[in-house]
Design a protein that fits this description.
Elements lengths: L11 E5 L4 H12 L3 E6 L5 H11 L4 E5 L5 H14 L5 E4 L8 H4 L8 E2 L6 E2 L4
Helix pairs in contact: 1-2
């Protein structure tokens, strides 16, 4: 049996796309290590609220925020809400398939609609 340490005690995390799949697994794990967690979701449903209830019923803090990570305004609002609600803001997990990219990245045609090929970080015209 291993002894668990709560190495993230007192820290706060924001997980985008945290209501399902890998995001939900991350949201479940962070409180085990001691972090308070805010998560964003895009599509209506009970998954995000059930996850927050799970976290809070174990004595940890969970916050649910509706935000489209492809919208700069919605993402800023989610970060602001997390900032107000969490004691600290130490961890940001980007777990969405689309984000608002910084302006320099999207201003050139070379960087628009780039698909990543089999080798991470290398542009490819094909799919995986």
């Amino acid at each position: 049996m291993t002894t668990q340490t709560r190495s993230l005690t007192g820290k706060g995390a924001l997980v985008t796309g945290g209501s399902k799949g890998i995001g939900a697994a991350i949201v479940r794990r962070l409180p085990v290590d001691g972090a308070s967690v805010a998560l964003t979701f895009l599509h209506p449903g009970q998954a995000a609220f059930q996850l927050a209830h799970e976290i809070e019923s174990s004595g940890d803090k969970g916050l649910v925020l509706k935000a489209d990570s492809a919208s700069a305004n919605e993402l800023r609002a989610a970060v602001a809400d997390a900032r107000e609600s969490l004691v600290r803001r130490d961890i940001f997990v980007s777990n969405v398939n689309r984000l608002v990219y910084p302006a320099p990245f999207v201003t050139t045609a070379r960087h628009r609609n780039v698909k990543l090929g089999p080798k991470a970080g290398r542009p490819s015209s094909g799919s995986f």
